[in-house]
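[SOLVED] Need 3D model of a two-part complex

Original post:
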Amino acid sequence: MNRVDGKVALISGGARGLGGMSARKLAEAGAKVVITDLREDEAQTTLAAIKAAGFEAKFFKHDVAVEEQWEAAVKFTVQSYGGLDILLNNAGIAGSSKPLEELTLDSWRRMMSINLDGVFLGMKHAIPPMKARAHLWPGGGSIISISSIMGFIGGSRAAAYCASKGGVRLLTKAAAIELAPAKIRVNSVHPGFIDTPMLRSGEEAMNARHEGGFQKWVDGVVALHPLGRLGKDEDIAHAVRFLASDDSAFMTGTEVVVDGGYLAQ
Amino acid sequence: MNRMDGKVAFISGGARGLGAETARMMAACGAKVVIGDILDDVGRATVDGILNQGGDALYTHLDVTQEDSWQSAVKAGVDKFGGLDVLVNNAGIFFMKSTEDMTLADWHRMVSINLDGVFLGTKTALPHLKARAAKAPAGSAIINLSSIAGIIGIANFSAYHMSKGGVRLYTKACAMEFAPHRIRVNSIHPGLIETDMAKQVVKEMSSTMGSDNAVRDMFVKSHPIGRIGEPKDIANGIVFLASDDSAFMTGSELVVDGGWTAQ
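Solution:
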């Protein structure tokens, strides 16, 4: 079940967090994995863990906002492993928590350049090699983009993030319809709050700013998830692996919500 | 991955179609499977098939509209396998009727099977699922078969849509109610899948569309992926939702429709 033997996967932002765990899970399930990221040290750690377990992966340093670097990353993947079957658009930023009237156009554009341009460019440059191999698999090629529960609902001081993740959600559906004849499936994953380095990136600032600081904030966030905990990297990586495998062969243009019940209430 | 070792699953309407495919796949993934259905001979044959493959399964008669039938069916499963971890509310019917032609009796029949059946199954299985959830790493799981008909509308299918939309939101309400007990509740939304029910859909629509082939062509074109689904497409989704791989999913809709509702 959920095997991806013989497939080649490119994972943007694969150094750590959801991307790092997805890289491990896909490699364990039989894929050859290219991890791209700007964070070289953490990527090497993830890579070493995958290789130590006897699986196959490589690293390519990559800024998802830059088109030439996407071209190079896809080329590297095809040259390394002979093709591309699975694209995981995972790289993204949370941005700073700012009221709308204080949000600068520069920070808005930075958000869009990573969270939306990055996904568009990934699709654009991955599609040609994916098309060439889609006939090899019962479920064709698979593009998975990480959106968020914030692709469905609004969050205060998160306007740019919500806009970017809502964009990913509908970009996914448009791509799904367009690419269905080419046998490439396109789906989005919508995590709730997951215990990742991204989530913890605000820890120091929050401790400095608020009484109770980060832990109080986390307790409040946990209470918004009916299952009563934050998500784990692997909760998302398992959904990614399912969507990457032929077990989801009849799924395209769908949203897999992995949020501990956040959106259902 | 998607393993179900040691879990006991109850599948209503498991004699044939999606339910039978789910039963076979769960058994292959290590689950002990209880099939409840009104089609006794077909259900027993499905169980025999699982046993012949080295799986563990039990057939029990179940009329999902009757509370006492649910009680005896669930008891049979629990007596045989020692508990219950997964409930798949799969039993359901379909008919096509315009609002003018539909009688209140037609409407009530749809409610009794497609909605009463889900409620009664949930209610009856709940104490057993609770008991096992406490000890399982990812709790227990309920998977309700809704449909794309629980998301969008199709002319002259109104009773079916009513029932499947009900299942969709009943699922979310149960997810909230049972989360403290670590029971996850999710719905799955198939497009048209190659089953006996699909044959019935095609047959009923062919009277207005001319021929079975015209209806089938229309359905193939309605799925951007360019085909009608196979039972294993849905069974794979159900096994994912039943397994600990979906440990952080509850109140979610897993749409397995070849892109139908994305367009």
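Edit: The first strand of chain A starts at residue 8 and ends at 12.
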